[in-house]
C-alpha cells in the first residue's frame, strides 16, 4: 500500500515508518523538521527506503503534493510546547487535520484509512472516586492557589475527602489546555469527516510514550528524557510535587503495533482508542527505574531523585488510560518501562551531541516559568 506519514521524521512517526517499510509498504514522509524538536536538522534515523518530502501540514499545497497517489495516511505531525501560543496549537493540529480531509475530499482521493494521533491529555485529570461518598467525579486542573500551598491531591467537592484516580476510558473528555483541545478537535474531525465522506478513520489516544529517538530538545517530551540526561551526567533529577503522581507509560514498539493494527482492522474504524501501558507507576518509581539502569551501567551508586517541593503549573495529578477497548481486539502492551528505559539509554549513549542538552532543557523550563516553588 502507498502510505503517507506526516511527522514521519519524529519519535512515533519514524518508528511507524520503519514498521510500515518492513511490512512492504511504499512510504512517503511529510515533515517540516521544526525546531526545537529537530534542533540539528534531518535526523540520522530516517528510514532510507522512505521518500522524504519537506513540507508543512498548514500548507494546502503541501498536502496536495504529499497526498498524491497515496492510499492511506498516518497523520502523526503535531505541535506541542509549554509556550502560551494558543493559536499555533490550533493552526498546526486542528487546521492541519482539516486541510488533510479537505484536500482528500476535493481531489476525490480514495483512501483506505486515516490514522490520526491524539493524546491522553484530551482526558485531562480523568476520573476519580470518593470512597466516602461512593461518587465518581471528573475534577478540573488544580488551581495555582492549591499547588503553591503544596496540596497535591484532589478533594471531593461534596465531603472534602481525598479522592482516588480511576482508569480513564475513551468516553471521558476534559481537555485542560490548548494542546488538548486541539487534539480533541482532531479526534472529532477524524470520526465526523471520516463517516461523512466514507474515509475509514481511527484516532489513537497515546499515553506517555517512551523509547529511543525522543527529542532531547523538546521540553514537553517527558520523564525518561530528563531523568536519563541527569543520571548521564551523575546528577540527581527532580521529581515535581511529592513524586507520588501516577502515570501510564507505554513503549514505542507497543504504540507502533497499535498503529499498524489500525491500518487494516475495520473494527477500529470511526473510533478513538486509548494506547497505554496498562499499569500505573508513580513518577518516583519511574525515576528509580532510570536510576537503577544507570547504576548498572556505571557500576556505582547514584543519588536518589530530589523532591524539593517544586511543581509544574498545568500538570495533571494522575493520568492513566483504560486500554480494555484495544485489548478486546487482540492488542496489549508487551514491554515494560524497564525495557523502554534500557532502549532509550542504549540510544542515548550512541549520540554525540549530548553535552549541552541538559542545560538547554533546564533553561527552557526556567525561561517559560513552568517550574514553580511551593510557598515557604
TrEMBL record:
It comes from the Bacteria. InterPro entries: Epimerase_deHydtase (IPR001509), NAD(P)-bd_dom_sf (IPR036291). It holds the Pfam family Epimerase. Residues 3-140, 169-276 form the NAD-dependent epimerase/dehydratase domain. Belongs to the NAD(P)-dependent epimerase/dehydratase family. PANTHER family: DTDP-D-GLUCOSE 4,6-DEHYDRATASE-RELATED. This is NAD-dependent epimerase/dehydratase. It comes from Desulfatibacillum aliphaticivorans.
Amino acid at each position: 500500500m502507498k502510505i503517507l506519514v506526516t511527522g514521519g521524521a519524529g519519535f512515533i512517526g519514524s518508528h511507524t515508518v520503519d514498521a510500515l517499510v518492513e511490512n512492504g509498504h511504499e512510504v512517503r514522509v511529510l515533515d517540516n523538521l521544526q525546531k526545537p524538536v529537530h534542533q540539528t536538522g534531518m535526523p540520522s534515523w530516517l528510514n532510507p527506503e522512505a521518500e522524504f518530502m519537506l513540507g508543512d501540514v498548514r500548507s494546502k499545497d503541501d498536502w496536495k503534493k504529499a497526498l498524491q497517489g497515496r492510499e492511506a495516511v498516518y497523520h502523526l505531525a503535531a505541535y506541542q510546547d509549554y509556550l502560551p501560543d494558543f493559536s499555533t496549537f490550533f493552526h498546526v493540529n486542528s487546521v492541519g487535520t482539516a486541510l488533510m480531509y479537505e484536500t482528500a475530499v476535493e481531489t476525490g482521493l480514495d483512501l483506505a484509512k486515516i490514522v490520526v494521533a491524539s493524546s491522553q491529555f484530551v482526558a485531562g485529570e480523568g476520573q476519580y472516586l470518593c470512597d466516602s461518598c461512593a461518587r465518581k467525579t471528573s475534577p478540573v486542573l488544580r488551581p495555582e492557589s492549591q499547588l503553591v500551598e503544596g496540596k497535591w491531591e484532589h478533594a471531593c467537592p461534596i465531603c472534602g475527602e481525598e479522592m482516588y484516580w480511576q482508569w480513564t476510558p475513551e468516553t471521558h473528555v476534559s481537555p485542560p489546555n490548548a494542546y488538548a483541545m486541539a487534539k480533541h478537535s482532531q479526534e472529532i474531525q477524524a470520526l465526523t469527516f471520516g463517516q461523512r465522506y466514507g474515509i475509514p478513520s481511527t484516532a489513537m489516544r497515546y499515553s506517555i510514550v517512551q523509547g529511543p529517538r525522543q527529542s532531547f530538545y523538546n521540553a514537553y517530551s517527558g520523564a525518561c528524557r530528563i531523568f536519563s540526561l541527569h543520571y548521564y551526567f551523575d546528577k540527581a533529577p527532580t521529581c515535581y510535587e511529592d513524586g507520588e503522581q501516577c502515570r501510564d507509560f507505554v513503549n514505542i514498539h507497543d504504540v507502533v503495533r497499535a498503529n499498524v493494527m489500525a491500518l487494516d482492522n475495520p473494527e477500529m474504524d470511526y473510533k478513538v482508542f486509548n494506547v497505554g501501558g496498562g499499569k500505573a507507576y508513580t513518577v518516583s518509581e519511574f525515576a528509580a527505574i532510570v536510576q537503577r539502569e544507570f547504576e548498572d551501567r556505571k557500576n556505582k551508586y547514584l543519588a536518589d531523585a530530589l523532591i524539593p517541593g517544586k511543581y509544574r503549573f498545568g500538570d495533571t495529578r494522575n493520568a492513566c488510560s483504560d486500554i480494555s477497548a484495544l485489548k478486546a481486539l487482540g492488542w496489549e502492551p508487551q514491554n515494560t518501562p524497564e525495557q523502554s528505559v534500557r532502549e532509550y539509554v542504549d540510544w542515548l549513549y550512541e549520540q554525540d551531541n549530548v553535552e549541552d542538552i541538559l542545560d538547554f532543557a533546564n533553561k527552557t523550563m526556567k525561561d517559560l516559568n513552568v517550574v514553580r516553588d511551593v510557598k515557604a
